[in-house]
């Protein structure tokens, strides 16, 4: 007997028939003796419909009012889901973010959960009811309705699970779990039984869209095991949990991910003085734009040039020029907002050139095992080279290697790397 | 300079163009130096759409969950209205029932407002913003969302006006104001400049659907002048205010109203012992059904009969039989629920006959002036007689005379009475 949080996304509750299938999953868990709390998102296209309504009435981008508006999407879902559960014989009670005191900061549209008052949820569970909690929304200290931004309902589910000390947080999605690569890109990808929090976070930030980064991060912080499952099909799904449990598999690479729609900003020939990076990135952070990778290299003095786009190439025996190149990537839609900010920063710096690129993708190999196994990066570069994929930039972390490539090469690159690390369903035994 | 509450109903905010016209009315009031708070209903068919969604997912009639669901309708309206106001250059902030602490009892679907915390609304006004408050909804002590039932948004508007001590509560509707009779029934009906609270309440309860009874009642209790206006047209509307101001007009009858869809329950031959009425009406009240008129007469002993449907006719010199007849009316849709309750009561009473009627209407003349002017009832009966309308039941109050007639005669009866009291727009001078 345990406490389980089950989260159903927008497509899982899009109509009455689907909601009934969700309710059956809740009923079965209860039948098996578990206490169940449910978190739901807005149904199907509700959020888009609401945004359209807002666009009709004015071009105001008032984030407080948008949150007030958007939060109705989840409120509709929780009431309907409670009605469905009751119709299926499961006593239930719907709770808005405000009603179960999901306190957030007041950053409308991308608020962060600070605390959840578990008392209300616990008392409903104790009374034998299923609390149905609105995902994606919270309430600021002044009583304003806030929303958590993309993937917010996953975050709500994990936060609720943490608050009530649940044994597992089940995220029902439209996929069977986490694969070694996106099966739409690599058809022979294999479903993983488990994946570590860190691996999942790297995969999520590298383009695996199954779960949102913040939810996994919160899962790791609070130690809540997260299970990703298909909402309309049977199957064990994938358990996201502590790395240690996966070590036995000895795999160097767990997943390969492809991120497209990358915007790249290259700043060349910058005077590398203390505070340079702050000048560039503070305005971008203040605008609330997420920067993905940041790569900095020192330019070399040879031939009086500050280094072109190929600055990452090594020129042996040429001393640093005192200048540097900074490259960073953002989501392509953010480029329009980023460009004037960077132009202004460049003016303040007084020296340097700006180049903005689109049409790029990023292939990443993620695996906690690569920490202890040499040659992973080399194997990845070899795979890409053999596939004829040119590598524009490289970044690495403890458990990840990312290569920025031409967008047209993205899929080919992903498949080559996926095959190189024997991740396919037909691979009998991991080699490295 | 004053404080004005403006309430816009569902049809007034049904689309962006209409919302802009509402915003223009707010802007003009502000331009004239007034502080304005706004109350809005759910847009157009939103409430019906939500009820349909609920019907799709289950046949549960869980009133708490229905309230949770329905309240989203007004929440969508307030957010959109705030966005429209901002787009039109008027600073605004939307507030749910919970955010401005509209505390109600926990009678879901027909909750009553207990208190409103005016502090939030006042502070928004003081900051130069227009608070846009969700009508129809409130919050129970345990944090549950409640709805006020039919006409709830009018009640919210008047309650907000009372809480912030507003100078006037303007109810924007799809009519130009209060007429001497419904212009669709009596085309020569005249727009009233003012009407008394009591007159308006009688008119509302007698079938004039412009404003809900509870809102007028609350206006009277709190002394808030209520102005009924057209949301899409210009005009002074009708001011609902203290009776005294209207006395000068010397009119006996202010409005004539027609109520259709009446269900009549006749109980004949009941032993008139203490507690009889309680036995009949307690279960009906407990079921939350509103009883309209109650008429009781003592039956006469003549011919050993307890009195048929004609019991109201006088039989001089026949002593009371110790039996009585009780007639009451309810809305026709409530009859199905009322009938078994009354049957059970009749069993408990042990004696009596039950007859249920539909196909009836009620013509009422309402006027505070009739208190001081004799002959009003007689003039009304004369008008109905001359029009060939048979009167089935009669009830009167201090300021109202109602006649129940065949539904087919309703419109004819209304027109005859309207004419008899010289209420038409062409009447040069009131005669009585």
Overview of the structural elements:
The structure is a homodimer. With about 425 residues, chain A is of the alpha/beta class. Chain A folds into 2 domains: about 5-175, Acetylglutamate kinase-like (Carbamate kinase, 3-Layer(aba) Sandwich), CATH 3.40.1160.10; about 245-430, VC0802-like (2-Layer Sandwich). Helix content of chain A is about 35%, strand content about 30%. Chain A has helices at about 15-30, 45-55, 65-85, 120-125, 150-165, 195-205, 215-220, 275-285, 335-350, 375-385, 410-420; strands spanning about 5-10, 35-40, 90-95, 100-105, 115, 130-135, 135-140, 145, 170-175, 195, 225-230, 240, 255-270, 290-300, 320-330, 355-365, 390-395, 400-405. An 8-stranded mixed beta sheet of chain A has the order 3-6-2-1-9-11-12-10, sandwiched between helices. In chain A, a hairpin with a 5-residue loop joins β7 (about 135-140) and β8. The longest helix of chain A has 25 residues, at about 65-85. Chain A is globular. The interface between A and B is large, with 40 and 40 residues.
In short:
By secondary structure, the first copy, chain A, is α/β, with parallel strands linked by helices.
* Rg of chain A, Å, rounded: 24 Å
Distance between the termini of chain A: 39 Å
Question: Which range does the strand content of chain A fall in?
Answer: 25-35%
At the fourth level of CATH, the homologous superfamily of the largest domain in chain A is: VC0802-like
The average pLDDT score of chain A comes to 87
Task: Specify the helix fraction band of chain A.
Answer: 25-40%
Main beta sheet of chain A, described?
8 strands, mixed
Beta-strand segment tally of chain A: 18
Quickly give the structural class of chain A. Answer: alpha/beta
What overall geometry of chain A do the principal axes of the alpha carbons give?
A: globular
What is the level-2 CATH architecture name of the largest domain in chain A? Answer: 2-Layer Sandwich
How is the quaternary structure best described?
Answer: homodimer
Q: Supply the CATH class of the largest domain in chain A.
A: Alpha Beta
- Order of SSEs of chain A, N→C? EHEHHEEEHEEEHEEHHEEEHEEHEHEEH
């Amino acid at each position: 007997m345990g406490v389980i949080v089950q989260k159903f996304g927008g497509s899982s509750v899009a109509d009455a028939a689907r909601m009934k299938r969700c309710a059956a999953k809740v009923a079965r868990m209860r039948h098996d003796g578990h206490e169940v709390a449910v978190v739901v998102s807005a149904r199907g296209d509700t959020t888009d419909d609401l945004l359209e309504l807002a666009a009709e009435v004015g071009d105001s981008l008032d984030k407080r009012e948008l949150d007030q508006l958007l939060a109705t999407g989840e409120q509709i879902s929780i009431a309907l889901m409670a009605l469905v559960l009751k119709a299926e014989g499961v006593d239930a009670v719907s709770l808005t973010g405000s009603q179960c005191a999901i306190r957030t900061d007041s950053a409308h549209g991308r608020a962060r959960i600070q605390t959840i008052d578990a008392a209300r949820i616990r008392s409903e569970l104790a009374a034998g009811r299923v609390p149905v909690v609105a995902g994606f929304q919270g309430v600021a200290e002044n009583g304003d309705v806030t929303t958590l931004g993309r993937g917010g309902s996953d975050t709500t589910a994990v936060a609720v699970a943490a608050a009530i000390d649940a044994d597992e947080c089940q995220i029902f999605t439209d996929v069977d779990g986490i694969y070694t690569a996106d099966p739409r890109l690599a058809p022979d990808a294999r479903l993983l039984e488990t994946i570590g929090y860190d691996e999942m976070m790297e995969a999520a930030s590298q383009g695996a869209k199954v779960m949102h980064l913040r939810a996994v991060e919160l899962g790791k912080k609070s130690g809540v095991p997260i299970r990703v499952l298909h909402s309309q099909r049977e199957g064990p799904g994938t358990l996201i949990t502590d790395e240690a449990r996966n070590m036995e598999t000895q795999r160097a690479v767990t997943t390969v991910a492809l991120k497209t729609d990358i915007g790249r900003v290259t700043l060349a020939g910058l005077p590398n003085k203390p505070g340079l990076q702050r000048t560039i990135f503070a305005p971008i952070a203040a605008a609330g734009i997420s920067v993905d990778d940041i790569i900095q290299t020192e330019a070399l003095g040879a031939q009086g040039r500050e280094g072109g786009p190929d600055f990452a190439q090594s020129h042996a025996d040429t001393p640093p020029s005192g200048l540097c190149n900074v490259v960073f990537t953002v989501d392509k839609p953010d480029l329009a907002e980023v460009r004037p900010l960077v132009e202004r920063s460049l003016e303040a710096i007084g020296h340097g050139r700006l180049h903005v690129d689109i049409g790029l993708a990023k292939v990443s190999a993620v695996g906690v095992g690569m920490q202890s196994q040499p040659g992973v990066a080399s194997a990845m570069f070899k795979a890409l080279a053999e596939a004829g994929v040119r590598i524009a930039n490289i970044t690495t972390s403890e458990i990840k290697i990312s290569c920025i490539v031409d967008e047209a090469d993205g899929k080919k690159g992903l498949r080559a790397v996926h095959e190189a690390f024997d991740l396919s369903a037909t691979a009998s035994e991991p080699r490295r």
